[in-house]
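Quick start: read one record
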Amino acid sequence: MDEVDRRKLTSNRSYLVKNIYKTMNVVDKLMEDRIITDGMKQDIEAERTNDDRNRRLLDIIPRRGPQAFEAFLNALVNTDNDFAAEQLSPGAGSIYKVSMTSSEKGMVSPEEEKPQNQHSEIILPKKWPTEQDCVTDFIVKKCSHSEERKWQSDYYYKMRSKPRGRVLMFNNFVAVAHRVKEDGSWKEKLQMREGTEKDEQSLRRLFEQLHFDVEVKKDRKVEQMRSDIAEEKAHPFHKDADCFILVFLSHGSTEGIYGTDGNVLTTDEVKSSFNNKNFGSMTNKPKLIFIQACRGDKYDKGANVADNMAKDMSDARKSMSALNLNDPKLENVDEADSKVEKSPSNADMFIANATTQDNVSFRNTKFGSWFIQALVYILRNYACQTDLLDMLTLVNKLVSEGRALDRDRNISVAVSVFESTLRHKLHFFPGLTEVVTHSPQD
């Protein structure tokens, strides 16, 4: 390997360590090209984390001869690590790309595969959530060039800049205090929202690949959330942004979202804060709100499908070791997050909730919440080909496939819900961007 290529690997090492996806797929490709030996593959595979495997691979590549750098670029491009190849050599994506099926790339199952130059058939998992589908290390599928006509169309909201806009995310892990009776006396305890860190990681990776800047605020009281919201609205970046996204990961009630102090930030206040009248820099632009929180303490027993009830109960009990109901009285299955030109003021808004009014939502302590993980799964696979409203209908479908046990150990279900005053279609157009003209840090 010549010195120029060696320097490219060295200067980009930190980026490559964090951003090469599914390292062993890259290694397999390099073995096919006789760059990596079986012994080297075993050494890489023995590393504990994906970052460590990337480090070991980057230690090996410079020692593998004059063809190693080009073979490495080829392997990156053809395992859907185009972004890493482009970091090393701009234009590598178009030079090294070959026609491969999705199953050959090891990215999706054969039934999800799409014919060349056509939209993929939408096939959803039969169960939800599952460890196989709720992953944080994923690549958002990019738009094909056939989507560029829509990208320029007035029927779609403008989504062209890089970054598109900002995501403000509230993640309350240490949640509201509650009283429990132990040994004849009442004691204060904190409910921890196990699994919410998985949601945060998945959402950050999703939105960054959809060309958004993401900021996370953790463990906030209601007054702190109000202050954060006021500061966000005053951010000069929004004047040139295409879109704004707000996310809440917390416990909730019939009125709204709990802060860590046990007070409630009402959903009505949140919606009002970000409407066209009160968020002037984003007037006529899409404002999206996603709320992972309960909206009451009721459990939806669902419509009785007699033939399936016994199997559902069996499946739910089998998964008990990994799951946990976040309830002061019981901890066992999936956790409930209880507790100048005029424009219409409330136009251009989209609000999605993890569950319907008065009902609990569910969060798996290992896989993440049903709703957020479904949102991430659908957007990472289908934002390249369809719009927001169609995708959230698919999210509703996935969430409804979940099964949990309530306090009485009966099967409970849930379904997410959304409302929209959007006036155009909203397509994220992943992979399609104009020249960077602004930055949240400016």
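Residues 3-105 form a domain with the Death Domain, Fas fold (CATH 1.10.533.10).
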